[in-house]
Amino acid sequence: MHHRFLFAGTAAAALLAGCQATKPAASTPTAAVETLGTTAVPASEFAYVYRKNNASDPGFGTKASVEEYLDLYTNFKLKVLAAEQRGLDTTQAFRQELAGYKQQLAQPYLTEKSVTDQLVREAYDRLSKEISASHLLVSVAPDAAPKDTLAAYEKALNLRRRVTEGGEDFNAVARENSDDPSARGASGNGGKLGYFTAMQMVYPFESAAYATAAGQVSQPVRTRFGYHLIKVDNVRPAQGEIKVAHLMIRTKPDMPAADSATAKKKVDELYARLRRGENWDKLVRQFSEDAGSAPNGGELPAFSTGRMIPSFEEAAFKLQQPGDIAPPVQTPYGWHIIKLTEKQPVPSFEAMEPTLKSKVSKDSRSELNRAAFLKRVRRENNFVEIPAVKEYVLAKADTSLVQGRFAYSAPAAATGKAGKNITDNSALFTIQGQPYLVKDFLTYAQQSQRPRAGAEPRFAMQQLYDQYVDQRLTEFEKANLENKYEDYRMLVKEYRDGILLFQLMDEKVWSKAIEDTVGLQQFFAANQANYQWGPRVQATVISAATPQLRNQAQQYMAVGRYQLKADLPAPVAFRTGSADLPASNQALDELAFRLEADETLTLNAVGRVKKGETPALARRRADRVVAYLRSKSIAADRLRATAEPRAGAAGQVRFELTTTSPAALEAMLNEKNPLAVQIQQRSFAKGESKAADQFMDKAPGVYQTELDGRYYTVVIDKQLPAGPKALNEARGQATSDYQNFLEKEWLEQLKAQNPVKINRSEVDKLITK
Predict the structure, then answer these.
(1) Which of 149, 211, 231, 659 is the most exposed place for a label (fewest CB within 10 A)?
(2) What is the pLDDT of residue 420?
(3) In angstroms, how far is CA 82 from the centroid of its own chain?
(4) 388/317 same-domain check
(5) What number of other Cβ atoms are within 10 A of residue 659's Cβ?
(6) CA 240/CA 129 separation, integer angstroms
(7) What is the pLDDT of residues 274-298, one digit of tens each?
């Protein structure tokens, strides 16, 4: 029977999904399902956890299922009780870890799920369209005073009348009046934004654009940047995502005309060669000046409308079939030849929903969710504002507040009641009857103030008051989640107990089994019958993607030594006409260390000479290097000195390395495809290799087979008899078994310390089948 037994789990991400609050917490006491010593385990707690973790199990509600789960739960609670009796739940480290998890677990309960769902669906629906628009911005700060906000709004209205009633060109008006720097002046874009879709603009702007018909101008719409006028130029169906590759020749806007012409000529020639059928990947690797994409054939990540430079995007989306290549297109970065590799339509809602939820939570539209949440908690938590006291607070605002220099000293505590004599100890508002005092808010105002040039003091104080109320409501709601929602309370308890369990299990079982080497050896010896080899063979198994690769690997294996192609030592340079080693031999010392550490390696030192030097000098240089390595205790039969008779580019000794390690052969054959060839050289027991299993009873020799689309050569070296394993051969399994043994012993001790008494009548209530 399978259980999703999550008691020891403390990974927040695994449990957060789908934890939106739906069920108020129960407040009535319940009977105990069992007692552990003098500690009662509530029946409601066990029932909740059993249903949560077994509801989808076919055996749910049967006597066997309930009894098995109760046994597991009892062991779990005994361990947690032991941790509590040790005081592990009182340490600062425990409290900090639990507080961090509670912060994460609370987040789904501090939103409005219905609002989130509506916003996600709206975003998806909007993704089916793409809008081309222009805008004109009248900037105003998010926290501007009402008079400044009104002035900006009236300016935006006047500009709108010029284009809607006066017939002026929208883009011309934007060049003259927009506060968006990219729109202004003769070189500006006149506010043209190109095409965009949902989730690419701030939410109020996006909503206004989608609500405006093509050819029309929106009413002024407020964002954090100010007021926008939006002219929708065109609406078209969404083009989805595409993947393209490109070949780029870099240019700069300010480069000399001659260099610009050379770049254009170069890209035109490359385009002509591609049209004639030359290999795309080869030309990209040779000529593309985008170093990031050139090694991968110029491939770029998938993108949708509004994600790339408009000219690049336009050329890319015009391509129809994978493999189509667009003529060179220029961007501020240079000239591009674009090849289409894949077109992807807008995915289904089910496929996009998780991504959209994540984006909505971080997008400006999340402010709608926040507002709905605060509205609900005001109502549910009986928020009561006291107008006279609020007026008293707002009246304390002066110019020091907008200068960021407001100072406040709280008086001594006194009555919090508001009456005729309002003081700083009066209640400013209440949440579920709990008073929040004037002095606490004014202290907050002093700590949270910032300079607000041009703002009205009373307006600045009102904004701080609104922030303070929102924060206190959120804190109150968060502090009462465990009383309000059973799901949240049980989830926090699960995390709490899981942290305690992990700490004690590590001490009593997991780490102890690893560190107690004497105990492990004694356990292994006492249970040697459980750790036995069956029939085995000493063999080499070659697995290849094709018969040709298999044969190639087999030929190399027959030679038994393979030349390394990568990670070769750097050459050692010599002075002209000299065979004396350089003053610093650090490179040779590192080479000696490598040869000492890897006994499969052999080295050939190849002497080279500059023009004008004798071939004999090349050999003396190689001999000197070999002599130095021998002085570092490297065996002579692993070292060889040779010379290149013709002059090279420099007077130096270069190195060739060979190895007997199959891993090096694997790396060489897998240079283009990492899964082309796999080589295993070891003993194989029955069941460890399907290929080796076929020849387990065969005499030493070479055998071939084909399995699951792979081609195998199995070289049987010898048969190995059945017999006992050594501890080092079974350490993983033995350690796991020893951990189980230690846990069982520990549980017996815990049951002796805290005898378990089951309340059978409560257990039977869960048996429904």
Answers:
(1) 211
(2) 61
(3) 36
(4) no
(5) 17
(6) 10
(7) 999 999 999 998 899 998 898 889 9
The angle subtended at Cα 506 by Cα 500 and Cα 507, nearest 5°, is 95
| SS3 assignment for 583-624 | CCCHHHHHHHHHHHHCCCEEEEEEEECCCCCCHHHHHHHHHH
| Within-domain flag for 321 | yes
List C-alpha distances in Å: 183 to 136, 194, 208: 8, 13, 20
The number of domains in the chain is 5
Residue 186 clears pLDDT 90, i.e. is over it: no
Contacts of 499 (CB under 8 A, 6+ apart): 10, 94, 97, 98, 101
- pLDDT tens for 544-597 read 999 999 998 888 888 888 888 878 898 998 988 899 998 888 889 999 999 999
Name the packing angle between helices 547-559 and 662-669 (round to 10°). 140
pLDDT band at 755 (very low <50, low <70, confident <90, very high): very high
Rounded to an integer, what distance in angstroms lies between the CA atom of residue 299 and that of residue 712? 34
Residue 388's pLDDT is what?
94
Domain hosting residue 584, numbered range? 562-659
Rounded to an integer, what distance in angstroms lies between the CA atom of residue 707 and that of residue 700? 21
CA–CA separation, 6 and 627 (whole Å): 64
End-to-end CA distance of the chain: 16
Counting DSSP H helices and E strands in the chain, the numbers are 28, 24
Q: What is the pLDDT of residue 428?
A: 95
Note whether 175 and 309 are same-domain residues: no
Neighbouring-strand partners of residue 24: 485
| pLDDT at position 603 over 70 | yes
Token reading at 181: 């720097």
Q: CA 611, 617, 623: angle at the middle one, nearest 5?
A: 140
Asked whether residue 543 falls in the same domain as residue 688, the answer is yes
Q: Is the dihedral of CA 393, 394, 397, 402 positive or negative?
A: positive
CA 253 to chain centre: 37
620-634 burial, b if ≥16 CB within 10 A, otherwise e? bbbbbbbebbeeeeb
Q: Do residues 289 and 252 both lie within one domain?
A: yes
Within the chain, what is the greatest distance between any pair of CA atoms?
111
Give the residue from 436, 457, 479 where a domain finishes. Answer: 479
Residue-wise pLDDT for 673-702, tens only, equals 778 899 998 889 888 899 999 998 899 999
Q: Could you tell me if 655 and 674 lie in one domain? A: no
Do 387 and 458 belong together in one domain?
yes
- The last residue of a domain, from among 296, 323, 345: 345
Residues 540 and 687 in one domain: yes
Consecutive H or E run containing 684:
strand 677-685
